[in-house]
Design a protein that fits this description.
homotetramer, alpha/beta, Dihydrodipicolinate Reductase, domain 2, 28% helix, six-stranded parallel beta sheet, 10 helices, Rossmann fold
Amino acid sequence: MIKVGIVGGTGYTGVELLRLLAVHPQVQLTAITSRKEDGLPVADLYPSLRGHVNLAFSSPDKANLSECDVVFFATPHGVAMAQAPALLAAGVKVIDLAADFRLKDRAAFEQWYKIPHTAPELIDQAVYGLPELNREDIKGASLVANPGCYPTTMQLGYTPLLKAVLIDASSLIADCKSGVSGAGRKAEIGILFSESSDNFKAYGVAGHRHLPETTAQLQRFTEQKVSLIFTPHLVPMIRGMHSTLYARLSKDVSNAELQALFEAEYRDAPFVDVMPFASHPETRSTRGSNMLRLALHRPEVDGAPGNMLIILVVQDNLVKGASGQAVQCMNLMFGLEESLGLKHIALLP
Amino acid sequence: MIKVGIVGGTGYTGVELLRLLAVHPQVQLTAITSRKEDGLPVADLYPSLRGHVNLAFSSPDKANLSECDVVFFATPHGVAMAQAPALLAAGVKVIDLAADFRLKDRAAFEQWYKIPHTAPELIDQAVYGLPELNREDIKGASLVANPGCYPTTMQLGYTPLLKAVLIDASSLIADCKSGVSGAGRKAEIGILFSESSDNFKAYGVAGHRHLPETTAQLQRFTEQKVSLIFTPHLVPMIRGMHSTLYARLSKDVSNAELQALFEAEYRDAPFVDVMPFASHPETRSTRGSNMLRLALHRPEVDGAPGNMLIILVVQDNLVKGASGQAVQCMNLMFGLEESLGLKHIALLP
Amino acid sequence: MIKVGIVGGTGYTGVELLRLLAVHPQVQLTAITSRKEDGLPVADLYPSLRGHVNLAFSSPDKANLSECDVVFFATPHGVAMAQAPALLAAGVKVIDLAADFRLKDRAAFEQWYKIPHTAPELIDQAVYGLPELNREDIKGASLVANPGCYPTTMQLGYTPLLKAVLIDASSLIADCKSGVSGAGRKAEIGILFSESSDNFKAYGVAGHRHLPETTAQLQRFTEQKVSLIFTPHLVPMIRGMHSTLYARLSKDVSNAELQALFEAEYRDAPFVDVMPFASHPETRSTRGSNMLRLALHRPEVDGAPGNMLIILVVQDNLVKGASGQAVQCMNLMFGLEESLGLKHIALLP
Amino acid sequence: MIKVGIVGGTGYTGVELLRLLAVHPQVQLTAITSRKEDGLPVADLYPSLRGHVNLAFSSPDKANLSECDVVFFATPHGVAMAQAPALLAAGVKVIDLAADFRLKDRAAFEQWYKIPHTAPELIDQAVYGLPELNREDIKGASLVANPGCYPTTMQLGYTPLLKAVLIDASSLIADCKSGVSGAGRKAEIGILFSESSDNFKAYGVAGHRHLPETTAQLQRFTEQKVSLIFTPHLVPMIRGMHSTLYARLSKDVSNAELQALFEAEYRDAPFVDVMPFASHPETRSTRGSNMLRLALHRPEVDGAPGNMLIILVVQDNLVKGASGQAVQCMNLMFGLEESLGLKHIALLP
């Protein structure tokens, strides 16, 4: 059994880790920290866990995280970089669900996140935890930077096309929509029910932190300079993310070839479902599951396939977009089957 | 034109007052205070008011409230009692949307609201602002205590029966459901979208502040001691309140007589709609309007009308349950037509 | 492995059975019938099942249901009674999620459901499938009548009190609230998003089919004549049911004794969670899980515990209120652990 | 007073016309037809209209529409073309909220709407009812084709840029999102609450009927051939439409110049609100009002304004996107103030 610690178990990615790990056959939940809720049984905060999780939150200083095999950081940015060095030194593997180690460019990190990076020596060592594109590196990693939710959808949608040199990397447009849980469990006016229900809006159009992360990762797969317009929107639903990705084809290619390209790319990926051409994936088909589904569309122009390709991508932002993906990485890091403990079927309706 | 001031214009009852008063034909909006948002144009906080309200928030000390004809307090409990004495002394009428003057029993107020009452000399003078039961007193009032949202539904549902001595006042059960806006515009975890959407729960079952208010008002209409069980619930909708009121009949009375009783009681009330017997009123039929709708049901027992009467009552908690009722009171206080500026049709769908 | 057939797999209880059974360790999904969708892969209708269920719907005549060990009827009323006799004769166990065998009183069935009962000889043989109250009978049953969703909450809330002769059975009031999925997957105006979102209403107050079922079952546990007022309401959420049960105490009993009574009653019930006294259970704490949670409240009157007891009960109407309960029965009928394949943790948020 | 008839008053655009016209100071509601609901009081179907609308539905043959001054068609496609010729011949003005007269290209109409056009002689005479771009023509029109909801947002967002020859008309991308009421009041599975709540999806990506309408209208303002990618999505909210419009700038222009262009274009338009540069308009800021709000964004590339312009446009799809716009046209056709009876403030929260 893998002894698991979770730092910051009170937020949504924390409770989602608990939901997944409490029934994972190879995991023993060992410690859950929360400075604020020290001593409170986890199930008192989250009654959904009554009967499943008997741990109480403990303050970080009391929790013996160094006795764990792996520690997940479900914390705001800046926490993992402070605690990871000591844990790694003690032989504990670390998976950070925040952004501390997502950007290889330290200056870019400090510019976008407005905090100094206090463990720059670990940046190179950190492995970007997107298994579909980085599987082998993750297997050998001690420190994994779990991807952002939006970047997961954009990378899995665009990368096959970039690798095959089929699209113009300089004119990508990603129009993305997220459920409200993506904003976290924070007491903020803007995400109150009465503010965000029965409403739709864009936000952060001037610049969202997931842009540099995505651009840098996409750049790995093309020699052309990547230029990406990224427009996030807030949807009045709890969970779910839908990315509508636009790419201009730069080569003559048939719809069947495009479909085959994606199917080949993800043939062995247990959590990417390439739907039939021209499908309309729904976010609810992934609710509570670690599955990401995508489908290709190609609008006709004057009766013939045009040069604009649309990739529709859906996932549960808290599972494949966060905690599920982190567990998927853990499975790889410990030599387990990639999908162990992650075979939940989406809750529909 | 009536010069109107609003203290605390940033909350939901405040912005709802603005929506109603900005198009009221006899009102001139004069001052809107907010300590926190001093200087901010109201329409910057509430874009729905762009083009309709040109005022900016001003801090309470700068606003010349004493030059108004009437000041509405859309504030937390405790603010009106501090400022009302000076305004009243200056000849300004006051309508308090909070609870400062709702309870005639000062000790009860201090017990339920946990603050000392600092203007006890005004308690007797204050008129309870439920026009359907108190119309004449409101016309002559300088200080009006606008009722709570739940109490409005319970009083308008039970009072005709109490006045006609038809029910057992000692076994009333009110199972009430409110939309989330009733909790106000406060940065609290429990009313986040991700916490309260797709969810239903009771709250405050052990004791809600609207209980003593309702009991005291109902007691005015019966010699029997009123005993009321009041169970509030939170519904995942923004606006709307639905009260399911149970009363045990103490006399032999036909359904037609019961229906006639309610129709007679509210014949001249422009904002109470007695629907046909056995209707199922929907909250959305009142969304954005000042109308309260109710309908009677009487389940059969062994094929005959039983002795349990059910009164279903719906309203928009922010309009008839708060700001609309306050404007209705203002109309009466200034000798205007009771429904002036309040004839909005509900938004459906 | 138990070979399982499902008749009527296109509705919500059908797809929910599929979600649960597809990962049940002792089940082999063998046949799913739908006259209308004959030949359509199940996962084409429900993309959430892609990769989990490879069956296609088949028309009832083609499906070899008699080779199954058990057949679930997730159909409208009237279907199970037509097909059950032949299946039972062939040695196949039957679990009906509709009402065909819930009422022992055939005349009452025909009155409330407006269809003649075509298999009256099976009514006596059918076992009412509420494991917490009927566990031993279910173990030996060939034909199980799975309870209605509302009746499950009312029975589990009231029965311990009736058995202990602590309440007045003649004045029960159940104010119940259900998510919209309880109305099924039917093309009806009233359950459109634009009709039922951001709205709340009561329905069927004059008489709901779950009333005679509940009354008859409660009557088993008391000598007093049961009289129950049952008011169902529609909540703008997909899943979830919240019953607010009122009962008048007929004996002097302390809160601690009441709490102990419920804890003792459900000590060995894996799917009933008796929460601490005065808790407010939320429907979301059961979303997607087979757990039913309940909590007791007792409002004070004049500073002392009153004689009204309130029992708050929540469940997921599609799981414990329907398909999960049916699987729980199946486990018992086949000698498996009662909770096998049913240990899903609720999806929160 | 203008005598108004409505054909097809039972759908959402019909009831929205009633909400707006019932309080319009120059309108007398004269006839509302519905073959199916003949004889039913309108307020029985829509309790929100109780006390405001006393008419009953009448079957089309009984209603004396030819005595009206203007008739609105809130019907499915194909109805207006059948009845308009006789009404126009009788001197009655006609406003069609469906698509019968939106496309000047008859062949395109028949291709996209799959029905033959039975009144082709009226196509040329019909005026496209988008007041901001067609005001003078509407004033003199007898037959108005009210625009589609999506096309209204796309035209008001793109046209100022096309007129000023600032963008590449051949690479427009409109990523649009609509509330569920846009699908109408039809008994269809896909728009049930349990199907569309807590969910997000694209639909009709392969081709939506609003595409040819929009392209044709945009083409009027540019010599370049318009090519538009249009991706509609369904948002779990009742009302509201958000269009995220992408356009590639073809000239060197500053943000201030772009902002000034839009402000000048809509200076005299009472229902277009050009918000400050880089605002994030919310759909709820238009809920129930006839206002359309838009804002410009221009993502930076390498620290300088890039060549991609984003126009965010929001409206209430049932008001400015349908019935409100129709009333706005009526006002112009009858020489009234353009905003008469349309000054509703949006319902927020």
